[in-house]
Amino acid sequence: MIVTTAVEDIRKTRWSDPMLDWGLVPTMGALHAGHLSLVAQARQENARVAVSIFVNPIQFNDPRDLEAYPRDLPGDLAQLKAAGVDLVWTPGPAEMYPPHYQTYVEVEALSRQLEGAARPGHFRGVTTVVSKLFNVFQPQRAYFGQKDIQQVQVIKRMVADLNFNLEVVVCPTMREADGLAMSSRNVRLSMAARAEAPRLYRSLQAVEAAYGAGETDAETLRQLMRTELAQATGARIDYVSIADPLMLAELDEIDAAGAICSIAVFVDPVRLIDNVILPPRPITLPSS
Ligand code: AMP
After folding, report:
1. 56 closest CA partner among 87, 95, 25, 93
2. Separation of 152 CA from ligand 1 center, angstroms?
3. Does residue 165 sit in helix, strand or coil?
4. Could you read off the pLDDT of 136-181 as tens digits, one per residue?
5. How far is the CA of 76 from the centre of ligand 1 (A)?
6. CA of 172 to the centre of ligand 1 (A)
7. Which of 24, 25, 27, 35 to mutate to test the pocket of ligand 1 (most atoms within 8 A of CB)?
8. Pocket of ligand 1 (CB under 6 A)
9. How many other CB atoms are there within 10 angstroms of residue 63's CB atom?
10. Per-residue pLDDT tens for 236-249?
11. pLDDT of 49 over the 90 cut
């Protein structure tokens, strides 16, 4: 496994055999089984797998969050080596954003919904760094988790709009046994908060069940989540959302296209996000 901070090393390795397909898994490190599931899928679908580890300062709107973000490079590299990764890029902020850096990539309206409203500038940071990663690695496929569903939608939009020549592959959310979505931030939960955190997924499951039983009124479904989350001691809702899958605008009524149901909740003081997809429904025509 080649580990480097230098763009030239990445390019040399990536193009040493131009016939091979490369899969790229972008991460911010502090790796867990969720990240490794992306690596495993990339391993299956490509001859070579590359991983980037970079805690991207420009996607953090809160400096304390950036400061507190967990980091464990030796542990990460050991896991990636065991997972059969070929190439790891571990740039620092100075390599990624050298002096006089001026260029940013922005997906417009979609980036301002939900996470974008709560964290202004967040997606501008994400799309800028992911564009750089795509240009440096030029992978055939790039792997992202459904856990960050808005990120997936924003990156898919960017790839289509800017004609990046690669496939965005979305991998399912990996969860702990009690349903809590795996996240690098979970290590910051106190014991009491960790005990309450599974309520997030339970509230999403309540929506899935109601939608499955035929409920399509979005406010009823949002209220269901609020009621479930109200039982979590010390939890504060940032948002509960039932939105259209393409633009993530809030819905009144879920139509045949289905919806994305997502939440962000502060649990003592860690901000957790999670989501489920409410699948499209076949349109039933009235019988004549
Ligand atoms: P991060 O290091 O948090 O930026 O995450 C890197 C990638 O791993 C992103 O595409 C995330 O969506 C994905 N990821 C994070 N947590 C999970 C999870 N629990 N299951 C699947 N993918 C995940």
Report:
1. 93
2. 10
3. coil
4. 999 999 999 999 999 999 999 999 999 999 999 999 999 999 999 9
5. 14
6. 10
7. 35
8. 27-28, 34-35, 37-38, 144-145, 147-148, 171, 173-174, 181-184
9. 9
10. 999 999 999 999 99
11. yes
| Separation CA 152–CA 158 (nearest Å) | 10
Question: If you write DSSP's letter for every residue of 93-118 in order, what string do you get?
Answer: HHHHS-TT--------HHHHSHHHHH
pTM beyond 0.85: yes
Name the one residue in this structure whose structure tokens are 């050298």. Answer: 98
Does residue 288 carry a pLDDT above 70? no
User: What's the CA gap between 19 and 60, in Å, rounded?
Assistant: 37
SS3 of residue 158 by DSSP: helix
Residue 53 has what pLDDT?
98
| Res 199: pLDDT | 97
Does residue 35 carry a catalytic annotation? yes
Test site for ligand 1: of 24, 28, 38, most ligand atoms within 8 A of the Cβ: 38
Taking every pair of Cα atoms in the chain, the longest distance, rounded to a whole number of angstroms, is: 70
Using the atom order of ligand 1, give the atom closest to the CA of residue 35.
8
